[in-house]
UniProtKB/TrEMBL annotation:
PANTHER family named in the record: GOLGI MEMBRANE PROTEIN 1 (PTHR15896:SF8), GOLGI PHOSPHOPROTEIN 2/GP73-RELATED (PTHR15896)
Alphabetical list of InterPro entries matching this protein: GOLM1/CASC4
Chief localization: membrane
Gene expressing this chain: Golm1
Listed name of the protein: GOLM1 protein
Gene Ontology CC annotations of this record: Golgi apparatus; membrane
UniProt family annotation: Belongs to the GOLM family.
Topology within the bilayer: Single-pass type II membrane protein
Amino acid sequence: MKSPPLLVAALVACIIVLGFNYWIASSRSMDLQGRVMDLEGKVRRAAAERGAVELKKNEFQGELEKQRQQIDKIQSLHSFQMENANRVHQEEKAMLMSNITVNDRLIQSLREHLKELQMEYGKLQMDVYWFQKNQTNLQRKFSYDLSQCINQMKELKEQCEERIDELTKKSSDVPQIKENKDFPEESR
């Protein structure tokens, strides 16, 4: 059975068109696989950056805890010193009350000593104030850094989601393009 030459030519043309379409589809598939690999690498890098942010957060929390412990130590030292100063003052005052006429000069020296203690108390209050101010600054800095890190993570996440959406749209558009290419050829 011999087939007419037009039928053989049509079959050869169909085979060539099908081979060309297969080649285009496979090259697009390779491109998409490359893009997927790039996106996976970016996701891994984002995860690594997130881990680094978590480490920084933990370090800041450790520093904050150390500052709090130092403030607690200073406050306890301050209260201990104030209790000691008050106790010494009360003992000296009791001695002065029992011997007022003899120890008039001692009363004057105790008043000077009290002024020194008050100045020391003022200095300690200033120290506590500066430590609290430093702690507040560290908390603000930590909050700012944390918000910056969260914003960066959100931006990266949105970029990744946009790219994934673009890829899914492109991958869903590929079969429609093939169908549209096939349609005009069938009508011919």
